[in-house]
Amino acid sequence: MKEKKIAAYCPAPGEFLLIPGSFRQEESIPHMLSYYGFSSFFTETKIPDGKTEQNRFYRVVRRTIQSVFDRCAFTVTVQDFTRGAVPAWNNQLLQLQMLASVQGGKITKDHTLNCNIYRFIFKEFCCEFFEKISKVVDVDCRYESIYVTYLGMELNACDASDRKKEGMRPSILFWIDEEHPVLSVQMDFAYPLEKLTNALDKACQWEGWKLIVRSTVANI
Questions:
Q1: Closest listed residue to residue 151, CA positions, set 79, 68, 31
Q2: 202-208 average pLDDT score
Q3: CA-based nearest residue to 76, from 192, 175, 4, 197
Q4: Which residues face 35 on adjacent strands?
Q5: How far are the Cα atoms of 23, 25, 85, 117 from residue 88, in angstroms, in the given order?
Q6: Helix (H, G, I), strand (E, B) or coil at 57
Q7: Straight-line distance from the first to the last Cα atom of the chain, in angstroms, rounded to the nearest whole number
Q8: What is the pTM of this model?
Q9: Which of 61, 111, 134, 182 has the most crowded CB, counting CB atoms within 10 A?
Q10: Alpha-carbon dihedral of residues 79, 127, 131, 102, nearest 10 degrees?
């Protein structure tokens, strides 16, 4: 899916559109379904930091993730393409690592030629850590080339008497393209779309928005 196709349908004020496809083709993950969502101010030429409608967008995304990830194994991946050059991130990193550790999370760090990669891995969704990391990345470090993805996998308890039958249900991945902003979602083919749309619909209602779901790009 190319960005220009979005212009074929412009959500009216108070609408949030969810459509299939990757916002940018290179971001698509093989063997997973892709969706992306945006609201009416997406087509504005400039979106000043702190703009009311933009902050409403971030609140919708956060509420959706919290609802979808309830009772899920939860992994947060942060990619720092500045490799430590942003004071707002550096100042919060130690606190984030300590909070993750206190909440029972596992922390890993990798380096590539382009970025530092931090992973915070939890056996179940940690609301306190999620609120902290989303504020640091989406607010304090917005537009600073620091990106975060949220991965959730549900515990599949087939039979409480036989723990060996437990496994992990299909995963769902969220991230935000902050330049616009746009919500990108990747899902396993077996993941129920209605779970995503129900959570997103409730989050939109909190902001007085209406969710519109397009089943095909041709509908735009």
A1: 68
A2: 95
A3: 175
A4: 20, 185
A5: 28, 31, 9, 16
A6: helix
A7: 12
A8: 0.83
A9: 61
A10: -70
